[in-house]
């Protein structure tokens, strides 16, 4: 006896007798047949969202809905009598509100209004289409903040001197390097740029943020208040490896946050309190010898202090893991 004939007969019959899958049953009918009994309310299934609304609302304006529920256009219903509309039901409630009241408070956000406009065009609701179009034409998206990118020293100086707000400048230019970068330098450079973007979004109303892509540094932060430089955070260092020199980019996040908050002391046009000013000054006698250009308006007795923070500049260790 062959292997095919060894199967039980009832097993073969059960496989062949399996009925094919079928979709939910719907039927096409007029509006009167779908609702029945002269009911004044209509049950709608719009993309899986159920609505129960009076007939007079749907037939108030000349639209696709009026054609559907005045007997001019056939509709689909399910076995429970819900009228099926193959559209998204996300904004159908807003459409019913407009048909009921003749006006509508449009949703917030340009994207939501555009979605509502697409639905209004599908249902041929002329008044709602005009309302959405007028709103989109009258409302333009404004940027959260504007960051000037300086391309010359004169432009940078003009922005800093004319600004009534403190200034934070980031210089980043990856090409300003004659050595190879360490393994984490690119990642740290991106983190500095991301931090600059976060700070500009948080403090753009109080601080002027500037980007400089042609400076001499690879990655350097500068902080200004009332037209003068307050501090500088240089994020690059030279690593003396056994075989060759490498450039390393650091990410001193805490220091950058600290200096940014320090610039807020110079936020207003009037001078800060004298005690705050003294915190950023130091006696000339404790600073060693300096050139006349570095001396402040107080002469040799007192000069403006510029804090320069160089992160691990001229490091004498190698970043490579042990054993390599």
Describe this structure as you would to a colleague.
This protein has two domains: 113 residues, Potassium Channel Kv1.1, Chain A; 134 residues, Glutaredoxin, CATH 3.40.30.10. It is built from eleven helices and 16 strands. With 324 residues, it is an alpha/beta fold. The strands form four sheets. It has a six-stranded mixed sheet with strand order 6-9-7-10-11-16. Strands 1-4-5-2-3 form a five-stranded mixed sheet. A three-stranded mixed sheet has the order 8-13-12. Belongs to the BACURD family.
Summarize this structure briefly.
By secondary structure, this protein is an alpha/beta fold. It has helices spanning 9-16, 31-35, 55-58, 64-68, 92-101, 110-122, 126-138, 153-162, 185-203, 253-263, 274-279; strands at residues 27-29, 41-46, 49-54, 75-77, 83-85, 149-150, 167-172, 180-181, 208-212, 219-225, 228-234, 236-240, 245-249, 281-283, 302-304, 307-310. Its main location: cytoplasm.
List the total number of helices. Answer: 11
User: CATH fold name of the largest domain, please?
Assistant: Glutaredoxin
User: What is the helical fraction, as a range of percent?
Assistant: 25-40%
Distance between the termini: 71 Å
- Please state the structural category: alpha/beta
Number of structural domains: 2
CATH class category label of the largest domain:
Alpha Beta
Q: What is the C-alpha radius of gyration, as a whole number of Å?
A: 36 Å
Strand order of the largest sheet: 6-9-7-10-11-16
Number of distinct beta strands: 16
Low-pLDDT ranges: 1-24, 33-39, 283-296, 298-303, 312-324
Query: What is the beta-strand fraction?
Result: 15-25%
* CATH architecture title of the largest domain: 3-Layer(aba) Sandwich
Task: Write the CATH homologous superfamily of the largest domain.
Answer: Glutaredoxin
Mean pLDDT: 76
Strand-and-helix sequence, N→C?
A: HEHEEHHEEHHHEHEEHEEEEEHHEEE
